[in-house]
């Protein structure tokens, strides 16, 4: 073999450090799959052997055995298309962030309506003219009365539920 041939051979294969980083990435992905809720895991298309290994990892309580099982899951992930699994996990994470953003948007409207009263009601009705103004005023008045009396926030929760239903079709930036 010539020196040129050796150089080409080395350039084609990944170095040992890269292989270790890739293996560690797959192990972390496997750990995430083991920690994932069963219902969320069901939504991800996984090979049967990998799914069985994940289920077994959830049942193992001994530290050493669990570590070996997670190592095996990482090894199995290196054999399969991990990009599809990563994409499914990222999609789930994005959905969770969007739901949290929507929750905070509704929570902000509810708090603003209760604290500010009429100016906030007018702002809500201006932003969403399809809403029933008298119903909004009734819900906000009840929630304000409840807050002033120091009672449990039942009306506040009802206002939140109503906002969630009424603004369900509205984009989050509104």
Shape annotation? elongated
Rounded to the nearest angstrom, the distance between the terminal CA atoms is 68 Å
Low-confidence stretches: none
Task: Provide the CATH topology of the largest domain.
Answer: Diphtheria Toxin Repressor, domain 2
**What CATH architecture of the largest domain would you give?**
Orthogonal Bundle
In terms of DSSP E residues, the strand content is under 5%
- Helical content stands at over 70%
Query: How would you state the average pLDDT, rounded?
Result: 86
Order of helices and strands: HHHHHHHHH
Question: In total, how many beta strands?
Answer: 0
The total number of structural domains is 2
Q: What is the radius of gyration?
A: 27 Å
Q: Quickly name the level 1 CATH class of the largest domain.
A: Mainly Alpha
What structural category characterises the helix and strand content?
A: mainly alpha
Main beta sheet: none
Number of helices: 9
Walk me through this protein's architecture.
The structure is a single chain. This protein is mostly helical and 174 residues long. Helix content is 79%, strand content 0%. It contains nine helices and no strands. α2 (16-35) crosses α5, α6 (82-116) crosses α7 (118-127) and α6 (82-116) packs across α8. It is elongated and about 70 Å long.
């Amino acid at each position: 073999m010539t020196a040129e041939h050796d150089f080409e051979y080395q350039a084609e294969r990944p170095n040992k450090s890269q292989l270790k980083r890739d293996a560690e990435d797959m192990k972390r992905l496997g750990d995430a799959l083991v920690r994932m809720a069963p219902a969320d895991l069901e939504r991800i298309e996984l090979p049967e052997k990998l799914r069985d290994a994940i289920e077994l990892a959830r049942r193992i309580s001994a530290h050493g055995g669990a570590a070996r099982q997670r190592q095996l899951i990482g090894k199995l992930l290196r054999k399969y298309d991990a990009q599809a699994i990563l994409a499914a996990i990222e999609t789930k994470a994005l959905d969770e962030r969007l739901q949290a953003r929507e929750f905070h948007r509704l929570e902000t409207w509810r708090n603003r309506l209760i604290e500010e009263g009429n100016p906030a009601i007018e702002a809500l009705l201006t932003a969403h003219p399809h809403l029933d103004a008298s119903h909004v005023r009734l819900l906000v008045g009840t929630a304000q009365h409840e807050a002033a009396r120091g009672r449990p926030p039942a009306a506040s929760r009802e206002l939140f539920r109503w906002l969630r239903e009424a603004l369900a079709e509205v984009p989050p930036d509104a």
